[in-house]
Every structure is written in structure tokens, then in C-alpha cells.
Inverse folding.
């Protein structure tokens, strides 16, 4: 995503091959046709409103990433190009309340992002911090390591400090911290730390790691009967750019944990299906998705399209 913004300025979408709607839903979106992988120096450019197919394929339609388990039910492009989202640059789905530090990175979209600008800064800083944390260097994250040295010296924290190996969903917490810090224009570590620690002085700890609350709160915005929240990105250079939250009609999760979402478990999706249905948590929570819709999807046998009806 970052490299495309910096080098090509194309509208590039990246859709993973294992993120598929049911076969009947795919036919409703668009009849299948052979897809050629893009050339490294000349990405293919379909029409702006072409829905994604279930194949490893890079599109020229802004930078988009969609991992499992999601179903794309219909073309979501018009929702991104209409108010209230069209004026914003970096669009994420939401994990909890409308603050910069509560993002769900299962969906990310960058439109009109300037090369070397503030949205690209957030993406690059997330990659840099992830590589840094994954190094596991004891000189950085162990006892007397550089990461904890100042905090321990001030009496905010103490050891033992043992590096925590990278596991699932840590990237989501990391990017939430990065974007939260960008909204406050100060580095933030709130949801994810690279190694174990004990907080000795909570107030000093919060100040040490930029855990500010007021500056992370996003402003509400409504248009076309849709609700989003947004905030200026302050870290980095370049023109003013913003981060905003995907509307519930664009994307909703099974549990509906993000503000403005329509939850799937409640039955709302039968009459008001989102363009992108997010099934994370559908099976662990009492097996509701299994009980109502059968076994979980696989690459050969996805959930039937009747789970979330496709709206023409």
C-alpha cells in the first residue's frame, strides 16, 4: 500500500484470494472471467466500479486490503466515493468506540493519499514498529533494555521484561496505537507493548507512553443517512489528511462492536446487509453462526449467500 502511494499514485486495490463471497453471490456481483496477474511494473486497471473477484489480483482502484473472514456482497466503491467518506483519506473499520486508537485493520482504504504524506506516514510507521517489535532484541526489550530504560528510571514501570512473541491480532493493536498517536501528534503505546512489564505509577506510565484520551476522540459526521467519525492526521509531513471510520452500510461485524455497525447475530443483515460482512467472532460466541448458517466456510464450501442476501 505504501509503496504504491509513493511510487505510482495509482488507485490500487489489493484483495486476498481467500476472501470470497459464496459462488452465487459472486455471480450476482459479476460473471466470472479469467484474471491475469498484474505485471510488476504495469498493474491492470479495471473499471472503477468493478467488484473484486476471488483471486490473487491487484486492481487500480485505491489501496484496499480485506483478509478473512469477510464476504464482499456488493460493490462498495460508491459508498467510499459518496458523502460522508469521499472527503477523507484513510478509512478503517472500527473496533469499539469512535476514537483514533480503536481501529480494526481488517479493512483499510487510502484515497487521495499524498506521496510521503500523513496517511502514508501512519502506514510506514506501523510497518517500522512491527519490524522493531518482532526483532525480539533483549538489548531493546529485556531488563535494562532501551525501550524500558527511561520508564523504569522514572519509577513508572519495572521488570521483569521478557519479550512477547508476535501472535495473531497484534498488528491491529499496533496500528491502533500508531493512528492514535498520529491524531495526537505524539508517539503512543497503549494497546501493545513488546515485552512484559509491571506498572508502578499509573499516571507517570500514561504520560511516558502518550496515552492521551481527549486528542484521540473523533468528530461525528453524517450524510446520506450514514454516520462516520473522523480526525485530522497530525504526524508526518505534506498536505492535511484525515482518518475516518467505515459506515455501517459499508462494513459491519458479526458482533457489531464498532460504533454505527449493524450486528449480524441480531438478524439485521437479513434486511439491511452491509456491502462487506465481517464474520470475525461468529463461531466462538456460542456457535451462533454455525447454528443458524451451518458449518464455517472453506475455500471450497463457503457459507451460502443466503447468510447475507445480495441486494441488486
Amino acid at each position: 500500500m505504501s509503496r504504491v502511494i509513493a511510487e505510482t499514485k495509482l488507485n490500487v486495490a489489493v484483495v486476498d484470494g481467500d476472501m470470497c463471497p459464496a459462488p452465487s453471490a459472486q455471480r450476482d456481483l459479476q460473471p466470472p472471467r479469467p484474471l491475469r496477474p498484474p505485471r510488476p511494473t504495469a498493474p491492470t486497471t479495471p473499471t472503477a466500479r468493478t467488484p473484486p473477484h476471488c483471486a490473487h489480483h491487484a486492481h487500480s482502484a485505491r489501496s484496499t486490503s480485506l483478509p478473512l473472514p469477510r464476504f464482499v456482497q456488493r460493490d462498495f466503491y460508491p459508498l467510499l466515493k459518496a458523502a460522508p467518506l469521499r472527503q477523507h483519506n484513510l478509512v478503517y473499520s472500527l473496533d469499539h468506540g469512535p476514537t483514533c486508537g480503536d481501529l480494526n485493520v481488517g479493512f483499510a482504504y487510502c484515497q487521495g493519499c499524498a506521496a510521503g504524506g500523513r496517511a502514508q506516514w501512519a502506514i510506514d510507521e506501523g510497518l517500522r514498529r512491527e519490524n522493531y517489535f518482532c526483532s525480539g532484541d533483549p538489548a531493546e526489550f529485556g531488563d535494562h533494555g532501551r525501550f524500558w530504560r527511561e520508564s523504569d528510571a522514572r519509577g513508572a514501570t519495572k521488570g521483569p521484561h521478557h519479550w512477547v512473541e508476535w501472535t495473531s491480532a497484534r498488528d491491529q493493536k499496533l496500528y491502533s496505537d500508531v493512528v492514535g498517536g498520529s491524531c495526537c501528534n505524539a508517539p503512543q503505546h497503549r494497546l501493545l507493548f513488546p515485552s512484559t512489564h509491571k506498572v508502578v505509577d499509573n499516571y507517570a506510565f500514561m504520560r511516558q507512553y502518550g496515552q492521551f484520551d481527549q486528542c484521540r476522540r473523533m468528530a461525528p459526521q453524517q450524510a446520506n443517512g450514514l454516520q462516520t467519525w473522523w480526525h485530522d492526521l497530525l504526524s508526518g509531513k505534506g498536505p492535511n489528511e484525515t482518518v475516518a471510520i467505515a459506515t455501517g452500510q459499508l462494513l459491519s461485524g458479526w458482533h457489531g462492536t464498532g460504533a454505527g455497525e449493524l450486528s449480524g447475530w441480531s438478524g439485521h443483515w437479513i434486511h439491511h446487509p452491509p456491502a462487506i460482512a465481517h464474520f470475525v467472532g461468529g463461531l466462538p460466541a456460542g456457535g451462533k453462526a454455525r447454528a443458524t448458517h451451518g458449518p464455517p466456510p472453506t475455500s471450497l464450501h463457503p457459507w451460502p449467500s443466503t447468510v447475507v442476501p445480495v441486494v441488486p
Observations:
- The chain has two domains: 2-115+217-307, 120-212.
- Residues 118-134 form the longest helix (17 residues).
- Confidence is low (pLDDT under 50) at residues 14-69, 291-312.
- The radius of gyration is 20 Å.
